[in-house]
Amino acid sequence: MLYVGTSGWQYRHWRGTFYPQKLAQARWLDHYAERFRTVEVNNTFYHLPEASTFEAWRERAPDDFVLAVKMSRFLTHLKRLRDPKEPVQRFMSRAEKLGRKLGPVLLQMPPQMEAEPERLAATLELMPPGVRVAAEFRHPSWFSDQVFEILSEHGAALCLADSPRRKTPFVRTAAWGFVRFHEGRASPHPCYGERALESWVERLEGLFGKRADVFAYFNNDGRACAIRDAIVFARLAAKAGLNPTRVPELADISVS
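Predicted structure:
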C-alpha cells in the first residue's frame, strides 16, 4: 500500500483552497480524513500533546486512518539522542493512545548534528515492538554503511527526503518505506512538477516494488501545493500499477 498524505492539516492558508471558507477549524481533521487516509502529525515535534489529544484524534479519525507522528524535538534536537529512555517512554506512552491508527514514528535529526550511531542504536532499542520508526538525517555524516546497518537491524526506514537543498541517498533499510517531499521546483513555488513526481513513482517502485508499504508525505504546504501534489502523485502511482490510498479530486482545491 502507498499511503499518501500531507505533513499536517492545520494550515490557515488552506482555508478557501482546501477547506471551505465557513468550515470551523475544529472540523478540519474530519474534512481532511474523509479525503485522505493518512497524515503526518508535525506539532508533536514542537510540543508534545497530552494523552487526551491523541485519544481525541483516534476517536475522530475513520477506522482506516493512519497518523504518522514526529518524535519530540526534546529528544532529537535538545538532548541529541542522549539518555533516550525517559523521552522515548514519555512520548510513546501518549502516542500509543492512537491504538491501531498509530503509523510510523519519525525521528528527525538536526542539520548540525553529526552522526552518533551508538545513540541512534540505543534509541531504536527502546521503541516498543511493532512500532515502525523512520529516521530523517540532515547531516551527510549519517549516510554510512554503519548507520544503514543499524537501521536495518531494527527494521527502521531511512527517510527519503526530497529538497533542492539536501539530498538523501536512495537506500532501502527496511521492508517498508518513508518519503518526505519538502519543496518542489515547479511554478508556483513550492509545488512539484508532474515529471518530478513521475520520477519519484518510478524510483519507489524500483526500490520497494508494488506491494510494500510506503508512506509518502508532502510538506510543501504553501499555496496548498502539498494537497495538489499529493493528488497528482497518487494518480501517477495508480497509473504505474501501485496501490495508493484515497485522495480528493483535483477540482476540490485551488492553487494560486
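Summary: The first strand starts at residue 2 and ends at 6.
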